Amino acid sequence: MNDTADAGFARVDTERLLNDLHDRDVNYRPDEVDARQWNFDIHRVALPRERPGPPEEGGVWRAAAELIGDYEFSAPGLVRAVYDPGEPLPGRHMLLEGRFAALRFYFGVRVTSVTDETRERGRRAWGWSYETLQGHLERGRISYEVVKHQDTGHVEFVISAHSQLAPTVGPILRLGWVLFGRRRQLSFHRSCGRRVNRLVRSRRGRPEAAAPKRDRGLVLAPSDARVRALDRVAPHRVDPGLPPTSGR
Prior knowledge:
Layout: H1 14-20, E1 39-47, H2 60-69, E2 79-83, E3 93-100, E4 103-119, E5 123-132, E6 138-149, E7 154-165, H3 171-203, E8 219-221, E9 236-238
């Protein structure tokens, strides 16, 4: 993984902000999700096939599952994450950095469910979902899964989500979202799909090629993300989903 000096974000106190997320609530209620006002997305990417049957050792499904578990699928030019790998995946907190041109936005999510099951027609699925916390630019939930159709050997990476812009976002950011946000959101989904496809092709059959684990200390993911000179001077906003008067 990245060097310890790079296991954070340049403009903020990463460790403090990450710790603060433990006291945050999810910023929406399930009964607020309404198809008339929320976006619902599903993005599927076909990965290289395996032989029919259970996931293969060193195969595509297991390589994709490892990428998903480590947040390696994220496009580093769009969204990066810092998390504590010692925190169990269910309930894990992640501080995200949203990147748009020279701007940086910091907000938190919590992993609220982990999927590990065989579904109807023998579809083997593994993945996890996170929900947005108070201060996030958006409200909602996004799931990342790798699914193998064991009858055919077809493997796919699936992103599913429901979301909307947080109603507490100020007018300037709201205008920016209207102009660019939805397009950026869909671009992120497509970029993640292309990245997983590329990485599983390079890793399948080579388990030693996976990113090494760290037992302690924070992780900046994906592992090829690096702090650059622009990151140290870029305008930034922490908790863009909170009103400016909140003092955060």
